[in-house]
Amino acid sequence: MLSAFANAFRTPDLRRKLLFVLLIITVFRLGSQIPTPGVNVANVQSCISDVGDQGIYSLINLFSGGALLQLTVFALGIMPYITASIILQLLVVVIPRLEALKKEGQAGQTKITQYTRYLTLGLALLQATGIVALARSGNLLAGCTKPLLHSNGTETFLVMVVTMTAGTAVIMWLGEQITERGIGNGMSLLIFTQVVS
């Protein structure tokens, strides 16, 4: 196993691709640790340590790599993209226009991918709005009475929603970069990274 890995690093092109993937994964994990502007990090950490091991919270933390409950820049992770992909795959069967696009080959697939991106951003906006609203009202971490945000104002709310939505767009771009310039499917590698972390 280690000899195969060492051989991979001896090939210049393969080494460059592997290092590129490692760089993207590092950026992804870094974004999963940076708190969204307006988050009271000390209170969030305290609340997570109090309620973080309870049923649903451990599951949420598993699929977000610990980023969602900490309200980080990449809090939404890859889930809006996965949801958008599933929705569009189902709609291809139902909507004749999308089915015709799928049959057009590469040009049609490119158009469907574009629709997936737009739907991803829409879903990310909705999810970010819901999560920030829950954090603002104090219902994100049940049983925690400390304020999770520094301010409950509209400006803080909007900045957090836009930041999390933009974070999802960056994650989508990072995944596409891995697919184009690295090794393997970028979105799958990012999902794997989230679950492992």
Spell out the blueprint of helices and strands:
Elements (H helix, E strand, L loop, with lengths): L1 H9 L1 H20 L9 H11 L3 H10 L14 H16 L1 H8 L2 H32 L16 H28 L4 H11 L1
Description:
The protein is an all-alpha fold. It is built from nine helices and no strands. It is globular and about 50 Å long. The relative contact order is 0.17.
Characteristics:
globular, 74% helix, mainly alpha, 197 residues, single chain
Brief account:
The protein is mainly α.
Strand runs, count: 0
- Flag low-confidence runs: none
Strand content: under 5%
Biggest pleated sheet:
none
Structural class of the secondary structure composition?
mainly alpha
* Rg computed from alpha carbons, rounded to a whole number of angstroms: 19 Å
Roughly what percent helix? over 70%
How far apart, in Å, are the first and last alpha carbons?
22 Å
Written as H for each helix and E for each strand, in order along the chain, the element string is HHHHHHHHH
Give the mean pLDDT: 86
Q: Given the C-alpha coordinates, what overall shape results?
A: globular
Oligomer: single chain
Q: How many helical stretches? A: 9
